[in-house]
Amino acid sequence: MSSDSLLDEALQAGGDVPALGTGTRLVHAGRDPMRYHGFVNTPVFRASTVLSPTVRDLLGRTQPYIYGRRGTPTSEALERALCELEGGAGVVLCPSGLSACTLALMACLEPGDHVLVTDAVYGPVRHACDGLLRRLGVEVSYFPPGTGAELGGWVKENTRAIYLESPGSHSMEVQDVPALVAMARQHGLRVIADCSWATPLFFKAHAAGVDLVIQAGTKYLLGHSDGMLGTVSASPRAWPALKALHGDLGLCAGPDEIFLALRGLRSMQVRLRQHEQGALAVARWLQQQEEVARVLHPALEGSPGHALWKRDFTGSSGLFTVVLKPVPFAAVEAFLDGLKCFGLGYSWGGYESLALPLDASEGRLRALCEPGCQCVRLHVGLEEPQDLIADLRAGLDRMQAVDMDSLL
């Protein structure tokens, strides 16, 4: 038996062995080198058909793997590792973060049901709720993310689940997850939470009582902007329905993306520390600039939900929102178009820094911004903070140089 198989046994033994640190778990979880001739990384199995030695084995499904879509040693390695990190009863892999979000919702809901969704939810999930779920006969209500136990007043006879995202997309508002979980338990509701920003390293969602924990693996799990992946981890009571629906929908992730996720997993803690330190340095600098109205970053005092973040989280990542004082959009374009270290693009969580203009008049940002303000979402990558700050300073200077009078 390999040393990592022994480690898995030790992990499962709980109190019989010393607790292992997160970095140790990230390095060893899901690996079994001796199973593959001593190679430290699980090989990439690209497979559909799996042959059986006999008819009895084929029909009786006696083998550990029966069909590529149903699992391979590569997918099993990632599932085992994530199950260890998340603390759930089981994990399924999806081809994207959005597919993981919709899968988690559908695993809890049937026609005629009602679901409560945070108003700060990721835009494509809102679109899926207003389109896909409504077409399936599911009623959706959006609640302010600052709502706590009083959300119980929103529960109807047909309410079956609540969907959280903490911090929320764009507004970065932190939710009182323990209070919402306690309310959900009183009403027999499932709790779903997208925890992609914090990852299981900075927020233990299952320990807080969440039933279905979503990770957009495209972000920090892969960490290199070279693949797409989504994961859902389930509590014991939510696992059977999730596993069954995942199989019924024929969802599976590609073997290369799974391998990239396994590779990214090993360095995730180191990368997240760098993202955290860099983002805080940049965010604190931006707070001091005259062109900036406010910075929405949960780890900063004064940001929405900071006290909850300080209570419930053990760290912060690289994504936050900057609210600029009122300027024409052309000035924002001048700010962004000349950036050298920040790329202009969607997604986040990779090694590179990104910038994205946001509409301050839409969604939750309306409540957090003065009229005329402009918003920019930044993801701070692994570059040196002083280089990013210099790049942003040059951008703010370009913004200031725009002839405002001619644009107003």
UniProtKB/TrEMBL annotation:
Gene3D superfamilies: Aspartate Aminotransferase, domain 1, Type I PLP-dependent aspartate aminotransferase-like (Major domain). InterPro entries: Cys/Met-Metab_PyrdxlP-dep_enz, Cys_b_lyase_bac, Cys_met_metab_PP, PyrdxlP-dep_Trfase, PyrdxlP-dep_Trfase_major, PyrdxlP-dep_Trfase_small. Signal peptide: none annotated. Keywords: Lyase, Pyridoxal phosphate. Its cofactor is pyridoxal 5'-phosphate. It holds the Pfam family Cys_Met_Meta_PP. GO terms for molecular function: cysteine-S-conjugate beta-lyase activity. Pathway: Amino-acid biosynthesis; L-methionine biosynthesis via de novo pathway; L-homocysteine from L-cystathionine: step 1/1. Belongs to the trans-sulfuration enzymes family. This is Cystathionine beta-lyase. The gene is metC.
